[in-house]
Design brief:
The protein has 246 residues and is an alpha/beta fold. It has 2 domains: 5-200, 2-Layer Sandwich (Bifunctional carbon monoxide dehydrogenase/acetyl-coa synthase(codh/acs), Chain M, domain 3); 211-246, no CATH class. Helix content is 36%, strand content 20%. The chain contains 6 helices and 9 strands. The protein has helices spanning 5-20, 112-118, 143-147, 152-166, 182-210, 226-241; strands at 25-28, 50-54, 61-68, 79-82, 93-94, 96-103, 128-133, 137-142, 172-178. The protein has a 5-stranded mixed sheet, with helices on both faces. Strands 5-2-8-7 form a 4-stranded mixed sheet. α1 (5-20) runs antiparallel to α5. The protein is globular and about 55 Å long. The termini are far apart.
């Protein structure tokens, strides 16, 4: 049993609650109209080239990943959208929630950092740019991509493809997007805050196994504070070699 299994159930209850409130909901399965590989997205998507903006701080956003070693909890390939789709949001800045749920019988806490790092997709999705990302996500979809048919079905399928390609231990994966309202995002953030606490402890324990007691929730390769942490690690190494000099 994974530490996140109860939160997979919480997300299912969250979706069901929004359904009962009459939120617009779609389920997707389809091919991709855009490329997904490194250098697929060329450069920055400027405001004038933006079809829709997702998760602007004023609109509200939330993003996190859950994993389990019990793949039966996951409906593989399912993409759920709660709220308006991209084609219904031209010229708007809308709230954005993104929940990634992955499962594999051999997945455990040791894979957590690599799974979290995989969410930093960079230039791999044509016409989609992530402006900033920590526990929240702020992104843009280009006008060119929207004309090609880019929607949340596209984004979900792209994320599933990228994750499964980068981590063969992932057997099943599903994605949930929320664009319905800032109120719904705030409710989701109540779950996200709990997940964040668990994530922090997992990362902390993984670092302890490596011999470091560093309190951090980010993967080094995606963190702007890496030089600071590198310096701390060197200090810790020196103390281990020369404990009397501390």
């Amino acid at each position: 049993m994974s530490v996140f299994d109860p939160y997979i159930q919480k997300i299912e209850e969250y979706v069901e609650a929004l359904c009962s409130k009459g939120r617009q909901i779609k389920l997707f399965e389809a091919n991709l109209p855009i490329n997904i590989e490194h250098n697929s997205n060329q450069g920055v998507i400027l405001r004038e080239d933006t079809y829709v903006e997702l998760g602007n701080p004023e609109a509200g956003s939330s993003a996190f990943i859950l994993f389990t070693d019990n793949p039966t909890l996951i409906k593989d390939g399912r993409i759920t959208l709660i709220g308006p789709d991209i084609k219904e949001s031209e010229g708007k800045s809308i709230p954005f929630g993104q929940i990634l749920i992955v499962g594999g019988t051999t997945l455990n806490e040791k894979e957590h950092e690599s799974l979290k790092y995989a969410s930093f997709i960079g230039d791999q999705i044509e016409g989609y740019m992530v402006r900033s990302q920590t526990n929240n996500i702020w992104s843009r979809v280009s006008k060119d991509a929207a004309q090609k048919g880019f929607d949340f079905e596209t984004l979900g399928k792209a994320l599933i493809s990228i994750y499964k390609l980068n981590n063969p231990k992932i057997e099943k994966m599903e994605v949930i997007f929320i664009t319905s309202s800032k109120e719904d995002i705030n409710q989701l953030n109540e779950i996200a805050d709990q997940v964040k606490k668990i994530t922090k402890e997992i990362v902390k324990e993984n670092w302890k196994i490596k011999g470091y007691d560093i309190d951090c929730v980010f993967d080094c390769r995606s963190c702007q504070e890496k030089p600071v942490c590198d310096e701390i690690r060197e200090v810790l190494k020196a103390k281990k070699k020369h404990p009397d000099s501390a």
